[in-house]
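Two proteins follow. First one:
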Amino acid sequence: MSICYHEGSREFHLSNRDISYIITVLKNGQLGQLYFGKKLHDRESFAHLLELRHRPMAVCTYEGDSTFSMEHIKQEYPSYGAGDMRYPAVEILPGTVVHIPAGVKHWHGAASDSWFAHLAFEVSGENTSNEWLEPVTDEQYDKLK
């Protein structure tokens, strides 16, 4: 299996001898699916596979661009409140418990227009530790949008 990343087009092309799976970082920072099917030869960009067209009745256009509607773009990781009308991949509600196994490096936070409270517990035992990683600056966070 090969994984190619094209920085210029912000696309990932995963393939084996039979299939290709191509995702892209959309202009709003979310992941979108461009293609899944018979193997394609790799190229610098598969942007032509993203269906963009004027949708006058779309309720979730992006910053006034009626051709970019999250209702019609296949999102790679759909979430509530992000315009995708399908079921989300994950939903975390007040009281939800998330277990992160030992040794898994992870990041969490809230969208810039919402809040997030984090309460962490570390279970004591042999070879356990808690390492707080570097903070994410406002500039870095803004680039994720």
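Second one, unrelated to the first:
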Amino acid sequence: MTPDPTGKPRRRTTLPQPVARVAPGLQALLHYDRTWLRSDLAAGLSIAAVALPVGIALAEVTGVPAVFGIYAAIFPLFAYALFGSSRMVIVGPDSATCVLVAASLVPLAGDDLQRYIALMVVLTLLTDVFLIIVAATFGGPADMA
């Protein structure tokens, strides 16, 4: 055990290499310094204050219930915190993607809102599967640039 800055013994913990490669955020969490918590909470609230209204508005633009926008604004942040490999990437819904999705799905769904939502869920899941395959093949999303 090595001492931390306060002199208390600190255990060295590491994840197995395959886990650390797929989920680098877990490795960072193991070494999280509690003194960062106040700043991190302020940053998280600032991001949420901007991301939530944008997510809700973009959900309305794409024709789905506003709660979908809340999910789209918040859950990607948690997922990227665990699986992302860069601290400088911004994730969440954006207007260009929303317009493309809406323009692609409206002709397929017609006037049926339930079908539209189901198609959107399937498109989202297929996109996730594709991104997971690409990330597993070439590295994390931020490593592909």
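SUMMARY FIELD: The chain has a mean pLDDT of 82. The helical segments are 17-22, 24-30, 37-62, 66-83, 95-109, 113-138.
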